[in-house]
Design brief:
By secondary structure, the protein is α/β, with parallel strands linked by helices. Helices cover 27% and strands 17% of the residues. The structure holds 1-deoxynojirimycin and calcium ion.
């Protein structure tokens, strides 16, 4: 893989803690993950995004770090982590880590020192004010679990700012020392060999918080600075940002107005996520088509990362209330499935009623839309959620490997309950069972990902929706790149339909179907392409030597 390798990747995200335990203490670890790299190789992914790996009191699943220069000893040593990087590289797998530097844990020595005295060298590393700010109860990210964004600290005798939980004090990015320190952290991990970072909460990193101002200034230049720094240290490193912001604000995250793409090369497409889920709920692709048409233009090299599920709730806040209600009605009918009034805390398989056809359709669509697909661990076997666990932990249960105790995750008492009963319990649903079954969802993912690797136009080409008065429920799009053109048909509805794409015959060169939900008739002159209920077809229109 050359430069811009991330445009031809499939990213697999996992939490080391819940993936594979190697020493029976019930906690997943680096050695366990190393033992599963061959599984990931066979699956066909080539990049792993690790959830936070730093030492942590674990009050927000690791998004509350106490030392950015080390690994959580429960996961192993820094030596184990270096071994992981080496073993992954041997298999052509790159590792990116979660970079959570908007805030620290309140147990971080920097904050501890900052609260101890106004004269502490770390005092100004956090955001303080002496008077209660007027916007104290505004801007919470976790409504219901969090009552304020400014909290009075008795020992510090001042109010500190925290965009997230009160145990996650925000770092002060107006302080040049903080900015320099963050660069050092990035450089440290690059030096060890990570291929990049998933950057947590980017809009809040660049927000230069002013007490009482709900519209504090944003410093986008810091992103350019970080990008340049990272690229000087490792030319092919990638930054993948979480920035769930209004569409018109997105381009600024990719680059400045000069159009050079000098900031974050890759962003999660949260808009697409909400629209995909809405389209699946309504069995109507219109919301996706509309977003593909109206997505702001990205600077050269800018890339989307697509996803259906991640480790958080599905955030529906960018849908209208009517759209949101449709999604809730279909996928989150029970209150226990909802979170923060805006999201759904479920895995995709149960959301789709365990319907294999719909699951394939959903993932086929995500993986063929423009950008780099990101896949959450366990989705490839159709894992479920445990709604008895609080909040987002419902979708963070251990990986189900086998029929053994705790699904083969650990021989000891697991850090989090493994789903053990019902359709989604490990006795019915696990990797071993699916590995021995050619028709399993896992086998499907392996074939699908292999076929995608043969279709690089999806990741590095141009994606266009074709709109030609197709039957309701049908989405047709194409991907064109230096290596040729691919055509994709998806039927989100349940009616059997026929699609006429005869107008493309002239440019096609021996078009042939490379992947689909069933054996369809030959594609012929493309004028009568059949699609079954929830059907999908991937057709290579032509291949060029790049
Ligand atoms: C976004 C992460 O995805 C989420 O899990 C976390 O709680 C917050 N950032 C705070 O770090
Ligand atoms: Ca362990």
């Amino acid at each position: 893989m050359g430069e811009r390798w991330y445009t031809e990747s499939v990213i697999y995200c996992l939490d080391v803690e819940t993936f594979q335990d190697s020493n029976g203490d019930g906690i997943g670890d680096f050695q366990g993950l190393i033992g599963r790299l061959d599984y990931l190789t066979r699956l066909g992914i080539n990049c792993v995004w690790l959830s936070p790996i730093h030492p942590t009191p674990g009050r927000d699943d690791g998004y509350d770090a106490t030392d950015f220069y080390n690994v959580d000893p429960r996961l192993g040593t820094l030596g184990d982590f270096a071994e992981l990087l080496h073993e992954a590289a041997n298999r052509g797998i790159k590792i990116i880590i979660d970079l959570v530097v908007n805030h620290t844990s309140d147990e971080h020595p920097w904050f501890q020192s900052a609260v101890a005295s106004k004269d502490s060298p770390y005092r100004d590393w956090f955001v303080w004010t002496d008077k209660e700010p007027a916007d104290r109860h505004q801007g919470m990210v976790f409504p219901g679990e969090q009552a304020e964004t400014w909290t009075y600290h008795r020992k510090a005798r001042a109010w500190y700012y925290h965009r997230f939980y009160d145990f996650q004090p925000d770092l002060n990015f107006t302080n040049p020392q903080v900015r320099t320190e963050i660069k050092k952290i990035l450089a440290f991990w690059l030096q060890l060999g990570v291929a990049g970072f998933r950057m947590d909460a980017v809009p809040f990193i660049i927000e230069l918080t002013e007490p009482g101002n709900t519209n504090s200034p944003m410093d986008f230049d810091y992103l350019s600075e970080l990008r340049a720094h990272v690229q000087w240290r490792r030319g092919d490193a990638v930054l993948l940002a979480e920035a769930n912001v209004e569409p018109e604000k997105l381009p600024e995250y990719f680059g400045d107005s000069g159009g050079s793409g000098n900031r974050i090369p890759m962003l999660f497409d949260f808009m697409l996520n909400g629209r995909l889920v809405l389209a699946l709920a309504r069995q109507n692709p219109e919301p996706v088509i509309e977003w593909l048409r109206t997505t702001p233009k990205l600077p050269a090299g800018g890339q989307w990362a697509t996803f259906l599920r991640n480790h958080d709730e599905i955030d529906l806040s960018r849908l209208t209330s009517e759209q949101r209600e449709d999604v809730f009605a279909e996928f989150g009918p029970d209150d226990s499935m909802k979170l923060y009034d805006r999201g759904i805390r479920r895995r995709l398989a149960p959301m789709l009623g365990g319907d294999r056809r719909r699951l394939e359709l959903a993932y086929s669509l995500q993986f063929t839309l423009r950008g780099t697909p990101v896949l959450r661990y366990g989705e490839e076997i159709g894992m479920g959620e445990d709604l008895s666990l609080p909040g987002r932990y419902a979708i963070r249960t251990p990986m189900q490997w086998s029929f053994d105790t705790n699904g083969g995750f650990s021989a000891g008492p697991p850090v989090r309950k493994v789903i053990s009963s019902g359709e989604y319990g490990y006795k019915k649903l696990n990797v071993t069972a699916q590995r021995h079954d050619d028709r399993s969802l896992l086998a499907w993912f392996e074939r699908m990902i292999r076929t995608l690797r043969e279709s690089p136009e999806v990741g590095n080409g141009t994606c266009t929706c074709i709109d030609d008065g197709f039957p309701p429920g049908v989405l047709v799009h194409r991907a064109d790149g230096a290596t040729g053109s691919m055509l994709f048909l998806h039927n989100l509805g349940t009616a059997r339909v026929e699609v006429d794409l005869g107008s493309l015959a002239a440019e096609a060169n021996h078009p042939n179907e490379v992947f689909g939900d069933q054996d369809y008739k030959e594609v012929g002159d493309l004028s009568a392409l059949e699609l079954g209920p929830y059907g999908y077809r991937w057709i290579r229109l032509q291949r060029k030597s790049a």
